[in-house]
Amino acid sequence: MIFTADLHIHSRFSRATSKQLTFPNLYRWGQLKGLNLIGTGDFTHPAWFAEIEEYLEPFADTGLFKLKREYAEKIDREIPSACRQDVYFMLTVEISNIYKKNGRTRKLHHVVCAPDMETVKRIQFELGKIGNLASDGRPILGLDSRDMLEILLNISPEAYLIPAHIWTPWFSLFGSKSGFDHIEECFEDLTPHIFAAETGLSSDPEMNWRCSQLDGITMISNSDAHSPSKLAREANIFNTQMDYRAIFEALKTGDKNAFLGTIEFYPEEGKYHLDGHRKCNVCLEPEETINNKGLCPVCKKPVTVGVMHRVNELADRKLGFQPPRSFPSESLVGLETALSQILGYGPTSKKVQGQYHKMMHNYGCELEILRSVEIEKIRKDMPLIAEGIRRVRTGELHIESGYDGEFGKICLFRPGEAKNFTLQPSFLVAWGEEPQAEKLARQEFKDVKNDNKNEQETTPSLGGLTAQQKEAVEHSGKPLIIVAGPGTGKTKTLTSRVCHLINNGVDPQKVLAVTFTNKAANDLERRLHDTLGEEVGCEVFVATFHRFGLSILRRHSDKIGLKRVKVCTRAEVLPYLRLHFPELSSKEIIARLNVISQCKSKLEDVNFASEDQDFYHEYCRILQTIQAVDVDDLIYLSVKILQENPEIQTQYQQQFTTILIDEYQDINKSQYALFRLLLGPHSDVCVIGDPDQAIYGFRGADVGYFLQFNEDFPDAKTIFLNDNFRCPQPIIHCAQQIIAANKSHVKRKMSARKQQLHSGIAYYECPSDKSEAEFVVHTVEKMIGGTSHFSIDSSRVEGDIPELQLDFSHFAVLFRSRQQLKKLEEAFERSGIPYRVVGQESVLSDAKIRLVTAWLSLIKNSQQLSLWYQVLSALPGIGKNSLVTLYQNSSGQDLMEALEQNIKSLKNETLSIIKDFYEFTTKIKARSVHKKIQKLWDHKEYGGYFRPEEEATCSYLLQMASTYTNNDDFINDISLTNHEDMYPGGKVRLMTLHAAKGLEFPVVFVCGCEESLIPYTLKDTDIEEERRLLYVGMTRAENFLYLTGSKSRLLNGQTKEMQSSRFLNTVKDDIYKKLEFKERKNKKSDQMTLFDF
């Protein structure tokens, strides 16, 4: 049977798609368009997959699906009889792969097809380990395309991958921005499994025939529809059984009797057909781009190289060549578009839609009208429309080609031509004029934010900003310092400002946005991508200070005497130092490392006492030997490079003319120096932060740099953000009373903008640290249970709280000292409540992760005997004495040579274990980072000794590794990743007050509100910074805040009587509810209110 199929579409769970994308609507529009088979799209999204299961049922044993009868019958009654036909569905999804390969970032989209629900579930399970499938209908995975294809083939030989719109500049196999030159470069050994590819809207089969590397591939076409009415703008024609296996057999074999060809967009109408620069309204032919050296003739910035240009680059044949495996194609213009041209109204206007549906009733479905209905039959009733359709069929059109994201414009009639027909020419679009439809119809449906394409650039609206935020976003001309209190929309303001600057002409490649945590950087990057689109958003350099420093060192490694840059964390270097200084305890080694770190953060020379100079020199020698730098060097050495090389400094000043720094109150001397070195004569500077949240003085941060900004920039503008969107007013009021006692506090009134019906603040003083921990656990249990257990005794909120929709990840338990952690963990262990201790230390503090990174280093460079010592120590059957012998009695760094030198002193069993592991390591060398780690962890003998116990940690590392092909890049980035960057769902977070900075939770406990802990007086501390630390902890709470204290606590091995924190004495009694410990005299009810505990 002959049928038409559109296999690449999206659901409403993808970004920039219509809310009308439901299965009943797809079924309806499929009939109106003339489609017999439609891809489901987005089967990896949990919510859409639930709808697939609800609305669809298997169609016999074909591997396809149909709309369930109860839904189909209702739709069929609404469809014109001339359009009614069977519509089936195939399980499909488009996946975005973004990863690094061969030194470049690659961004590709692929269509994945599956034959049954079970296969889909297995795909969901495997890909869910790598990325968040619920975040977007088209999930973004940091996974090599080749590796994803291997995953699919391992799941099912009938799970197929089809590269999508293979020429689109930004996200495709051959795209000019991030694609490959050869298909084998992408899929490597699995290239034979790629038997079909999608042309995309901006190319047609004839253009693809010019590339001989595509000769063995069947070129197909699909709509990539983001709304139902865009279905079938491109489609495929088959002559097979309506069967999944028959369809793909036709594509695999290229049988011309089974696959009959494609229905195409006119490629010139595609929005990336030619080169150009949209902002300057410049459209260029490929030859013009070459003559202009790839630059826009107006602004001299690089143009976006389009599909035609890219085809020319990779083509090895002239236009007109037709390979043996080629199929017929015909280009059409959508009927709604044609009617809009003819009638002069938008495609969604009543006139156009009325005419469209009238034609459905009279002549049949859209594809029949455009392709086969007799023109004379239409001409009797609609002569002008008939002539327009005739011209669509014959290609008698004028098309202004699309470029740089702008769709091409089609004109059906020249000026004056309509005089020969019955409609007046005033209703027609003149040749060369912008069609009125383009002006009238920006949306396909009134409730759709983006008309018909996910790549459309969106302009951020300033309507959602407060007056203060808007002022900060729009400020220009002078340096800007934004004083942003907690929960005041700091990230939103920063994002909006960057977008505003770019939309007003600032080159995104000249924007540098510096944050303090990976989470903040990722969040800002995501928001920029969402607002500006990935192609523009990814051009903004967003990084932490350390990652930015790493980029400088990588680029100028020769200036520090290294061929490549590897970041070595403290956890990695400790084993070396223990070997060289066995007389020093770990505590003594760490104390010396702290001195080195402090000196570097202050840009000072390292000055040890004479007897300790050997330690510093040996430390430097170890780093030099393993070709590494430590974390502090990332900024310390970057400053040195810029200071000692004025020409490099000038390059960076010219590269980044717009600089934004987040959390400016927490910078230290070296970061301040780096910032100042980046400033050029015309730099646009914006810093944002809050001096009341400066809590990192112990790490060398100096709030003085924030306070002296107006001295550094005398003409600077200061803007305060005082509207809090996070905390309820009682929490803000309480926190403000506490922080007001600081001399450095700048008085300002914070106001709650979000009114929570269920919120409150309470102080609980318990007899002991054990009962404090039990109170925390019990409260979590009761709130998770959703019982009416909590009454706020105040004039603001009265009565019991109804059922709360909370899960364990909504709770955070904050503490000042890790000495408090033991009792808390014991209580959570007893309760069975899932929890996780989150810290700021590098993930390499996990010994097993450290082993994995050491092993990865050895794969590239096995000439590091000290690393072999570290890795082999994890294997069973190898004693420490054997390794010490191997290490100390070897003249070189090669493991095999060391074994030969010590063969008599090592047991045969030990030799065998080491040689087997060495062979395993050597064999896996060519794999991607993700695959190497997976192979190690899955190994039946080695896996258990290298795999972290927590599955969340494993999943996070594999997800991160999937974007890398280079071991060093992965190791460097993992070295700068903290435990706080890994957010396991469904667990209560236990963390220090410092680690909570930048986070927020519905329910927050601040434990240990006592003298000695808050403020921490067990050693010399800055009392004002301690007060700021409590302020930060309190303002993490979105709904409920519990301040807890204990009358006695175990500290430093002794039970001590404790006094309530002096900070709470500044709070008026009516601000929070004081809870008292009460012994229950009976057990009449298991139902307790919080205040009864």
TrEMBL record:
<dbReference type="InterPro" id="IPR016195">
    <property type="entry name" value="Pol/histidinol_Pase-like"/>
</dbReference>
<dbReference type="InterPro" id="IPR027417">
    <property type="entry name" value="P-loop_NTPase"/>
</dbReference>
<keyword id="KW-0413">Isomerase</keyword>
<feature type="binding site">
    <location>
        <begin position="484"/>
        <end position="491"/>
    </location>
    <ligand>
        <name>ATP</name>
    </ligand>
</feature>
<keyword id="KW-0067">ATP-binding</keyword>
<dbReference type="Pfam" id="PF00580">
    <property type="entry name" value="UvrD-helicase"/>
</dbReference>
<feature type="compositionally biased region" description="Polar residues">
    <location>
        <begin position="457"/>
        <end position="466"/>
    </location>
</feature>
<dbReference type="GO" id="GO:0016887">
    <property type="term" value="F:ATP hydrolysis activity"/>
</dbReference>
<dbReference type="GO" id="GO:0000725">
    <property type="term" value="P:recombinational repair"/>
</dbReference>
<keyword id="KW-0175">Coiled coil</keyword>
<keyword id="KW-0347">Helicase</keyword>
<dbReference type="InterPro" id="IPR014017">
    <property type="entry name" value="DNA_helicase_UvrD-like_C"/>
</dbReference>
<dbReference type="InterPro" id="IPR014016">
    <property type="entry name" value="UvrD-like_ATP-bd"/>
</dbReference>
<dbReference type="GO" id="GO:0043138">
    <property type="term" value="F:3'-5' DNA helicase activity"/>
</dbReference>
<comment type="similarity">
    <text>Belongs to the helicase family. UvrD subfamily.</text>
</comment>
<feature type="compositionally biased region" description="Basic and acidic residues">
    <location>
        <begin position="447"/>
        <end position="456"/>
    </location>
</feature>
<protein>
    <recommendedName>
        <fullName>DNA 3'-5' helicase</fullName>
        <ecNumber>5.6.2.4</ecNumber>
    </recommendedName>
</protein>
<keyword id="KW-0547">Nucleotide-binding</keyword>
<dbReference type="GO" id="GO:0003677">
    <property type="term" value="F:DNA binding"/>
</dbReference>
<dbReference type="Pfam" id="PF13361">
    <property type="entry name" value="UvrD_C"/>
</dbReference>
<feature type="domain" description="UvrD-like helicase C-terminal">
    <location>
        <begin position="729"/>
        <end position="998"/>
    </location>
</feature>
<dbReference type="InterPro" id="IPR000212">
    <property type="entry name" value="DNA_helicase_UvrD/REP"/>
</dbReference>
<keyword id="KW-0378">Hydrolase</keyword>
<keyword id="KW-0238">DNA-binding</keyword>
<feature type="domain" description="UvrD-like helicase ATP-binding">
    <location>
        <begin position="463"/>
        <end position="728"/>
    </location>
</feature>
<dbReference type="InterPro" id="IPR013986">
    <property type="entry name" value="DExx_box_DNA_helicase_dom_sf"/>
</dbReference>
<dbReference type="GO" id="GO:0005524">
    <property type="term" value="F:ATP binding"/>
</dbReference>
<feature type="coiled-coil region">
    <location>
        <begin position="889"/>
        <end position="916"/>
    </location>
</feature>
<feature type="region of interest" description="Disordered">
    <location>
        <begin position="447"/>
        <end position="466"/>
    </location>
</feature>
